[in-house]
# Entry
Amino acid sequence: MTIQKNIPLSQYTNWRIGGSADYFAVAETRDELISAVSYAQKNSLPVFVLGGGTNVLVSDSGFRGLVIKNKMNTITMTALKGSVAGLDEKPERQAFVRADAGVLTNRLVRYTCDQAMSGLENFLGQPGTVGGAMYINAHNMNQNDFFGDHVAEAELLTLEGELKTVPQSYFQFGYDESTIQHSKDVVVSVVVKLDQRADEKDAIWAKAEAAMKYRHETQPKGYPTAGCTFRNISPEDARRIETPNKTRSAGYLVDQCGLKGHQIGNAKFSDEHANFILNLGGATAADIKRLIDTAKEKVKEKFGVDLHEEVVLVGF
# Structure
């Protein structure tokens, strides 16, 4: 493992924005990840683990610490339990698959679909890594499906260098929430629990492709973006302000404040979906942060609702 200095982070984020990290390391193995965390501890450096860079906004001034780019990329079958094809009329087995935290979520979904394993279909086409999916409890809100619901256990690395294996309950998953957002534990690998249905592979792929098609049809394209900027509002707030059909969409509130298409510098709320901020080319983190703050201020003023970022702010 090599520790580099002053590495621009814009090349590693979907928004193509961000200043430099004082220190930077790429971890392709568990030992390299442990070494990087140990280096940070010995040198009293703050640590940020970067996965796919799909859901982060790095400040223009960068990060005063060590950024670890997680490239651990192994997927393995760990166990199969249940009925066996040829002995049962409808063979179905419980499957346990381990994925390194650096594995792209979309790659894991494709692997499981190819193995006729059902459970992760709704995440086909979703950007980011497995580690990021654990951190934010990635979701497909159209199907009310959360990544954390499919987790059996995970291996974590504490910032003190301790490895531990914990059950799904450890994470206290919620909407855009997990324990590791506060504990700062680093995800090393995750075991997901799925159903292998040997005779339903085509149906599993059909469901996955329908989820990806819906995502493509409803999300803006053509410019760098980090996906949804804000978390959906609570059911209580939706009822209180009487949104149409009790929608919890943060984009609806931003739109109602007249901010759809609103632009600051080279950053803009999408004309298609007001919860997406686009980098039109040359936008700065400051431009995007000002859009975020404007939306929070306007929504609070008009609806009395506090919006919360879904994107992770780094270096602010």
Remarks:
- The first strand starts at residue 4 and ends at 8.
